[in-house]
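User: I'm writing a tutorial on reading structure tokens. Could you give me a worked example: one chain, its sequence, then its tokens, then a sentence or two explaining what the tokens reveal?
Assistant: Sure. Here is the example chain.
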Amino acid sequence: MLKVAVLVSGGGTNLQAILDAADSGKITNTEIRVVISNNEGAYALERAKNYGTEALLLSPKSFETREEFNQKLLEALKERDIDLVVLAGYLVVVPPCVIKEYENRIINIHPSLIPSFCGKGCYGLHVHEKALARGVKVSGATVHFVDEGTDTGPIIMQKPVMVEQGDTPEVLQRRIMEQAEWNILPETINLIANGKVHVDGRVVTIDK
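And here are its predicted structure tokens:
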């Protein structure tokens, strides 16, 4: 049984997609053990409570130093025997101590086809603003493992989404969530839970 922690800063639409997939059987062999947020007002915490999963508020602002927060986050994951950390709109930099402890066991969803429109400062609507400004005809979403870079870890899954004439960043964001993010993030968790994802350096292979 894969024990999962989902880290979220906002509303938690990707979290909801994970919870719904677990309920429907699209994600198997998995327990969503805890949802952690740095934001007291994050609706994701309510989603977790409604599902019956532990909702944990853990904010850097509550600690005197960032190092104290980093250690507390690591302790929270280890105390719950977490196997996989899922970043689903988490706007806190994951500390090196967590990345080291959970090498190739932290995944992130990014709303573009990496390596396009990613890296420092590329999150939320900024990604879609940049894509539209560049005039791309196809965008999408990427699930990747997290390393110490920004959006530089091995790519696990990608799904393209067509950009349509007249799109605004908000409209494109919604289409990418509906057509890509809410599908490939739960699918990736299910593949990992069932031992079908393998990492060799920067290349990921998936058993059919």
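What the tokens reveal: Residues 75 and 98 are 9 Å apart (CA to CA). The chain has one domain: 1-204.
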